[in-house]
Design goal:
9 strands; two-stranded antiparallel ribbon; Arc Repressor Mutant, subunit A; cytoplasm (chains A, B); alpha/beta; 7-stranded mixed beta sheet; DNA-binding; repressor (chains A, B); 2 domains; Rex_actinobacterial-type (chains A, B); Rossmann fold; homodimer; DNA-binding (chains A, B)
DNA sequence: GACTGTGAAAAGTTTCACAGCT
DNA sequence: AGCTGTGAAACTTTTCACAGTC
């Protein structure tokens, strides 16, 4: 790696802290899990990096490299046993565990989330819901009884909740997230269009359809994206 | 730019095709727009890369570099005029235009999307909705009348729709996307948990809360992410 | 004095290409 | 023969650091 002919002294060659897996790699694993699940459902018993790459639109080399961070799951000359690789990846991601999830905010969006059937099949269980509007407290939404915010700490502890989905108005989001962090929550899925600040070690992912749309319009302008000065207004 | 003392020969130093802006840069611009809007609402007249970086949790250098792909928007020694930079970025992203958007699929999710008030303030107008379930056709949802799929091509053309939001079951998503592409749609926001295949030049962004959750559980396992047999310390 | 804009260095990520196992 | 696993190369993205400008 130190191929640079210059530089007389010691070069720190290992860029990555040993044992650390790049975050981009982690972010791709769930997609591998999904494809493997589909292959399993379709009755496929073996696959290979070529086939997986086609499904995901990435190069076979990338898939092999990603997997190599965790071990050697394939058989040379044959490929991967779908069921085995799926089990390994789920294990790595912690998807063999069941995860209890709290939803904070039971407005229109929170309601939709609590009624959405797509989380449970993947091992996520929405087991609690909180709202600061007393009119909502006590209501039954998606099989869960809405509790007041004051009960959050207790319930999070009692029910071993480690993940929260935040669906409150932007103005309240940072406060709610601070409360959740204080309760020991370490992963947050945020639906508000804001950039929440959290301490180190707390993971946040945001669902932000407006940002997604806005990052596409750039490519939609009449005659292609305008380049630095030339091609001005449309 | 200052020292234009170019080298002796022709060196392909620029790895990037000239005039091309990296996609990661584009994906950050909407966030800059959002922060600048907030600063403007808060009455701030000027800002700088330091302040923007704090809000977005990125380095000031990155912000300056990102902006430098498009021009020189700051004043040395002073920073950026909030209003001006905001206008420039909106221009670059095409957010000064109004965009007509179609929603395909008016089930629970499509309903929630059509009733969500968060798109319009940003210049996106949900002006049409389609569903293949005739029981839904003719219903009025979020101020839009649901049309049969068969009318899609006509309506997309008539109403200059260039963006679609797809909220149909996974099994139908690829078919619907193919139809949309055939109608001339070039940007798609997909809510189904699948990896859609589209021709070159068509942009797709997916909203996928399950993938987001699954990419966080890795970091939640009891004693830190396990590394290939051994266990990483925390 | 303060802050931008930007080449150049560093860090990170992807792809290549091939030895080696089945 | 077919495909993995992996060092090394190629490429991309971020960060540094400072000349230049206000």
């Amino acid at each position: 790696m130190t191929s640079s002919s210059s530089g007389p002294g010691i070069r720190p060659v290992t860029a990555l802290p040993p044992g650390e897996v790049p975050e981009v790699v982690i972010s791709r694993l769930p997609q591998y899990v999904r494809i493997l699940s589909q292959l399993l459902d379709a009755g496929e018993e073996v696959t290979n990096s070529q086939q997986l790459g086609e499904q995901l639109q990435v190069t076979p080399a990338q898939i092999r490299k990603d997997l190599s961070y965790f071990g050697r799951f394939g058989k040379q000359g044959r490929g991967y046993v779908v069921r085995d690789l799926l089990r390994e990846l789920k294990q790595i991601l912690g998807l063999n565990s069941e995860w209890n999830v709290a939803v904070v905010g039971v407005g229109r969006l929170g309601n939709a989330i609590l009624n959405y059937p797509g989380f449970n099949p993947d091992g996520f269980h929405l087991v609690a819901a909180f709202d600061n509007n007393l009119a909502n407290v006590g209501r039954e939404v998606g099989g869960v009884s809405v509790q007041p915010m004051a009960e959050m700490a207790q319930t999070v502890a009692d029910r071993s909740i480690s993940i929260a989905i935040v669906a409150v108005p932007s103005a309240h989001t940072q406060t709610v997230i601070d409360q959740l962090v204080a309760c020991g929550i370490r992963a947050i899925l945020n639906y508000a269009p804001i950039n929440a600040q959290v301490p180190d070690g707390i993971r946040v992912r945001s669902i932000d359809p407006v940002l997604a749309l806005q990052s596409m319009t750039y490519y939609l302008t009449e005659d292609g994206p305008s380049i630095n000065g030339s091609t001005a207004a449309r």
